[in-house]
Amino acid sequence: MSHSLRVVFAGTPEFASAALAAIHGAGFAVPLVLTQPDRPAGRGMKLQASPVKRYAVEHGIAVAQPPSLRRAGKYPAEAAAAIEQLRATPHDVMVVAAYGLILPQEVLDIATHGCINIHASLLPRWRGAAPIHRAIEAGDAETGITLMQMDAGLDTGAMISEIRTPISADDTTATLHDRLAQAGAKLIVEALVELERSGKLASTPQPADGVTYAEKIGKHEAALDWRRPAAVLARQVRAFDPFPGGVATLEDGTAIKIWAAAAQDSTNNAAPGTITGVSPEGVVVACGEGALRLTQLQKPGGKRLPAREFLAGFGLAAGQRFHIPDAN
């Protein structure tokens, strides 16, 4: 099936490529894709194209990769050229998903129907860079996707539609990301079909209360602070899979990555960070409240392993202690 609505798409990671594939697969014309410049990645730090660029190239869609779209920024010439290219590319609407560049008002104004953003939270909760991680970390019962008419603020635009999903007790950022990417893809295609049919999309302003910001995840957050409650640390481990992982550092400086853990009650009065039990079922560590059972671990240079296999190649014993990170 083909559609007359022309869609310029802007996005970068896997989350965005799922939406681009759905839009293109539904038969909408995509005359241009914007994505971030190729970045060095992997062991050899070779330049790698974003998932969105890879999809576009495989399907013969034109790609632009400006380092910025702000004329007043560090790359005024590249920004001006990209804005000219957008103006010269006839399109009806721009769809933006995890693009990673700020869109100035003049870019938002180019398409007849403006820019629709696919945002991975139930706005106004978790505006900003890392909504999936922060929803898990905070223990939210549910999250979802909100389609939003973009304005110049940070995720402040009027809401077009949303789709909700519960956050289960074993969801990680990886599993929730994949579910939300599919939900976002479905929601944006429905919205584009409706926009083509009726020529407009109804939207409602975001409520003023309940606004929270999802700060970008920093590597420095990986260190597990054993003074915190075990339930909080268990959520942190799930939120930080696949990046940056939870990190437990032994007193000798060996940093062990923690990929799965469960909170449990503790009758032990050991100091936070003390290993109180080691068995094939997991390594139990005393916390500020309760204890954390580490069930999937990774030694430096090793692979992620279930506790049983990890312990076969790395000795840990009750009484050993993990370092408490400096309070930042």
UniProtKB/TrEMBL annotation:
GO terms for cellular component: cytosol. One of its GO terms (molecular function) is methionyl-tRNA formyltransferase activity. Residues 216-314 form the Formyl transferase C-terminal domain. InterPro entries: Fmt, Formyl_trans_C, Formyl_trans_C_sf, Formyl_transf_N, Formyl_transf_N_sf, Formyl_transferase-like_C_sf, GART_AS, Met-tRNA-FMT_C. It catalyses: L-methionyl-tRNA(fMet) + (6R)-10-formyltetrahydrofolate = N-formyl-L-methionyl-tRNA(fMet) + (6S)-5,6,7,8-tetrahydrofolate + H(+). (6S)-5,6,7,8-tetrahydrofolate binds at residues 121-124. The keyword Membrane does not apply. Signal peptide: none annotated. It is an enzyme of class 2 (transferase). Keywords: Protein biosynthesis, Transferase. Its EC number is 2.1.2.9. Pfam families: Formyl_trans_C, Formyl_trans_N. Residues 6-192 form the Formyl transferase N-terminal domain. Belongs to the Fmt family. Attaches a formyl group to the free amino group of methionyl-tRNA(fMet). The formyl group appears to play a dual role in the initiator identity of N-formylmethionyl-tRNA by promoting its recognition by IF2 and preventing the misappropriation of this tRNA by the elongation apparatus. This is Methionyl-tRNA formyltransferase.
